[in-house]
Amino acid sequence: MWKTILRRFLIMIPEVIILSLLVFLLAKAMPGDPFTGSINPKADPQQIKHLMRINGLYDPWYQQYWNWVVHLFHGNLGNSYQYQEPVTRLIEGRAGNTLWLALFTMILTYIFALPMGVFAGRHEGKLPDTIIRVYTYVTYCIPFFVILVIGIWIFGYVLGWFPTTGSISSDATGWLHTVGSRFYHILLPGLLGALFGTVNIVQYLRSEVIDAKHSDYVRTARSKGVPNRDIYLHHIFRNSLLPIAAFAGYSITGLLNGSIFTETVFSYPGMGLLFVNSISYRDYTVITALVLIYGILNLLGTLLSDIILSIVDPRIRIE
Amino acid sequence: MKTASNFLDIKDVSTAFKINGHYYDAISHINLQVQHDEILAIVGESGCGKSTLATTIMGLHDPAETKISGSVDFEGTDLLGLDEDGYNQFRGAKIGMIFQDPLSALNPLKRIEDQISEVMDYHTSLSKSAKHDRVIELLNEVGIVNPERTAHQYPHELSGGMRQRVIIAIAIACKPDLIIADEPTTALDVTIQAQILDVLRDIQHENHAGIILITHDLGVVAETADRVAVMYAGQIVEQGTAEQIFNSPKHPYTRSLLRSMPQRDNENDDLYVIQGNVPSLQKMPSKGDRFAPRIPWVPASAHEEHPEMHEVAPGHEVRCTCYKDFEFPDEKGSVMA
After folding, report:
1. Sequence-separated (6 or more) residues with CB below 8 Å from residue A52
2. Fold of B6-94+174-330
3. Higher pLDDT, A76 or B233
4. Which of B58, B108, B118 is closest, CB to CB, to A226?
5. What is the largest CA-CA distance in chain B?
6. Domain containing A273: what range?
7. Which of A47, A175, A202, B56 is the most exposed place for a label (fewest CB within 10 A)?
């Protein structure tokens, strides 16, 4: 088991190297420069060129890449051009917010989706199944940012039930109040993300349950005299969860990617919002750092999926 | 055949499946009896309704998609009148079933021990350690060499033959009176087949169970069965003792089956091939002999309009009268029994 994980981990090393190279080159390939927009438009073009030179932006790409990697190993992701702050500190302040929102959304998603999937599969072709199927397809068809905007308008603006921006209210003091306020701020984006992000899990689970229902081992279980309820509990549910478990690692990264929409619409100070802002300001150091982090998180997500799968499925276990 | 020791009495059972909103009979008007200490073989081609009969007895059909009529009297209870909970008192406890495909019939995520002891969870009040002992005993009984080890393994770690032994262990865990074995050896290679059949026979001697052995392999039948029922297109066309069926087969279908079986003394001849196919459920003729289209040289007048079972010897019954003058095309003119 540990061997498998270690081996999977070692495979990740070349993946990360290739990823970092791609990330770096793509960022360099973007048009524009980090200074033109932020300096007095009357400034001497020579001045900008000078800034570019002292920041090493005229060096050959491999030189720049090498410098970047060396700094990376020293825990130095560079300084943001836009914020004039170390990138590590920028990300530090936001990573928690993003993770918090992503985890909350994920837990809610599973709470909604698992019962729906099993229920739909169990009552295949009947009314509840039809309702759940229509529901998931409708949520799948509407672009997520549209949902967010409508959600903010109805629940944040018209009804005024939820805050519409930020991650915490400015007057929050004390431990309880702080946590409460943070929770209050992620409630609406989390609920919307979960209610409209169930389609994959529900559809997968539904078809797995239907398959399992007609499988030979379920017939064996019925011939043992196992009551229907226990057949679902002991045989169908666990087998149907396999692909969902395999999915879990990926879905975490999917949520991180989705946070780009959510955070932008909710002005929620997380990595997604930072990412969008950095792109509009050509803040190379931040962009490369974030893409690299998202990339590594994706790789970790697939690793996590493999680990989960090897825990739940004895056929994949390598002793 | 109706004697006091019949403990399974299948009377006039028909099972119809819903296809595109219409019900079509997969088996029609089946009458069969099984006694203790007896192996009844049901033979026929694929699609004859053998497995449907087995799953009907076990009550494994989805009631929304099937219509079942008749009665299955098992030790005084009509199984077909039971609800799910009632059926669960019999399934696994008094009736055990062995399935065709050992590769898919076990839950891939559960250890062998858990899969075997699950039967006992519902039908016995044994303690955990007593169940474990019974699992080991059962695995020994079905001929697994290292039962302690096997008990802790998962299905994918076992060979096909071992999995089939495990499935047999599940079926016999609660010493059922009736064991239904649906093609128990089809997916296994020949040497394993013989071993599995031996296991089945041993168990039967020990528990005095009745066994319904469903197969299309006449070799298996010859080796194990006491009585044989031949099914064609959802009907029983002939039944009798194994001796009667093998030594004096009557129905053209039985004779065709036997003739299409390789034998030592006809190794130079080509094997006989029955023309055509078993009719599909939707195209089942409503009257006449269902086998008639596959023996076209027999004149229509030889068949009954509504073929009935006729007793030709004590315990030996044949459907339709066409057997009387039936001969294969290449033996025309020769004298037939």
Report:
1. A33, A35, A58
2. Rossmann fold (3.40.50)
3. B233
4. B118
5. 70
6. 87-95+112-126+198-312
7. A175
